[in-house]
Every structure is written in structure tokens, then in C-alpha cells.
Amino acid sequence: MPDLQSRENPYNVTQASRIYLLPNLMTAGNLFCGFIAVIKCIQARLETIAPGTYAPVTSADLYTQAVWFVLAAVIFDSLDGRLARLGGRESLFGAEFDSLADVVSFGVTPALMMFFLILSPTQGYPVFRQIGWFIGFVYLLCAAVRLARFNVITNPYLHKPSDGSRDFVGLPVPAAAGTVASLVLLLLHLSQDNRELHRLALALPLLLLMVALLMVSTIRYPSFKQVDWQTRARFRTFIYIIVVAGFIFWLQEIALVALFLGYILWGLARQVRRAVVVQRLRLQRKQSVNKPPTSPQ
After folding, report:
1. Which terminus of the chain has a smaller tally of CB atoms within 10 A, N or C?
2. Tell me: the pLDDT tens digits for 254-268?
3. Per-domain boundaries in the chain
């Protein structure tokens, strides 16, 4: 019995450092995609400075490839945790390895995209050159703090695993990176219309700062961990899902931005609604306390 308890203890040396192949293979895929995305961003920047260095590939093509690698990292990141939970193969090593991979894929890469492309001074606002690196660093800092806080919140030594709230505290780092990556796709799509791109550039610094601050906020976002993918669905629901997936594939640049921004606004709307309900309950409780007692007839 003591041996069993020792093996079930998450801080047992053997248990904590155990490497489960399939979940950690997905995490390695996440890290690989992030690393390749970083390389693509650097190559795109070099291609912008010295055209023809990576001919016949253009800088826009390289940025597009970086975006798809980031989105692929999002898929790998969603698979590693689900596979670990399904197989009962969760370990402290896996959690730390996942966070380190996320720093590269969803921290460094989006920060480079911000500095190299989204906040580029070529949009006609040279001030972006001065604030671009700062906003990129703020994003990277918030992503690292968000991941560190997540590890603390989910640490089994501080909190026993429970099936209570399935929400994330703060905007998940993959969702923030997906927002940045989708904005890159949209900017590349609108690059032919300089006037539209010029207008959009004005709102980008505030939007990116908002995304960064939402990661370290206490706003709750749904994690979809409770979704059972084996649940039966009606034929009509299945058709709707296929149609939505088709529109996302057809209108990639617009649909992806709408998808990630919709997720951000969903969390904000839930927070506002929760605050309104709490305020209403407090008001009702205050009114019931201050209500004079009725005199007996």
C-alpha cells in the first residue's frame, strides 16, 4: 500500500519525470511548428530587406507559411492535453514541457509577427518602429506570465484535481496566438488595398495590447474540455458544422479573424453578464435586508 501511494503521488520522482510517448510527441510537434514559424518570420524579414535572398519565395509567402505553422501548433497543443487525459498519462514533466513549447509557439512567434509585420513602419506610421518592439515584448511577457500562472493554478501539490470549473482563467495563450496569426493573414490579404490597410493599422496597437492584457486577466474563457467528441448529434447539426467549416476554408482570412475575435468577445460578454447577475443579487439582498418588517394584523 505505501508503494502504491508513492507511485500515485505526483511529486514522486519517477512519476513526476515520466515521459509518456504520445502526449509528449504532440508537444514536440507543437514545439517543432513554433520553431519553424520563427525561422519563417526571420526569413520573411530578410526577404523584405534584401529581396531575392530566398527567391522565388516572397516575404508574404513566408509569413503565410509561418501563420499556418502557428495554427498547426494550436492543433498539436489541443491534442497533447486531451490524449494525456484520455489515457490517464498526465505528469508534471508533460505540463512543464507543454508550457516551454507554448512560449516558443505562442509567445516568441507572435511577438516576431507583431514586430516584423503587423506593426511595421511601412504602413505609413513611423512611430510604429518605436512602439512595435515594446508591444511585442509586452505580449511575450504576458504569455509567459499566463503560462506560469496556469502551472501554479493546476499544480496538484496546491490544488487537488477536480471536475469543477472547466474554464481557463485569462485568455488562453493558443487563442491569443491564433488571433495574431489570423490578423497577419488578413493584413496580407488586404495588402493590395493600401487605403484599407492604412486604416486598419491605426487600431492594431490597441487591439494587440488588449489581447496581451486579457491573457493575464481573471476573465474566464471556456476550455471545451468537457466536450465529448463521441456524443451523438442530429443530422441537421452535423450539416451545419460542415457548412461552417466550408465557409472557414473558403473565407480563410476573414473567417479565422472572426473566429478568434468571437472567442475573445464571448469571454468578455460572459464576464459582463456574470457581473450584472452578481450586482443584481447584491441589490436584491440589500433591499431585503433594508425592507421594514410587516406589522402583525
Report:
1. C
2. 888 888 999 999 989
3. 2-225
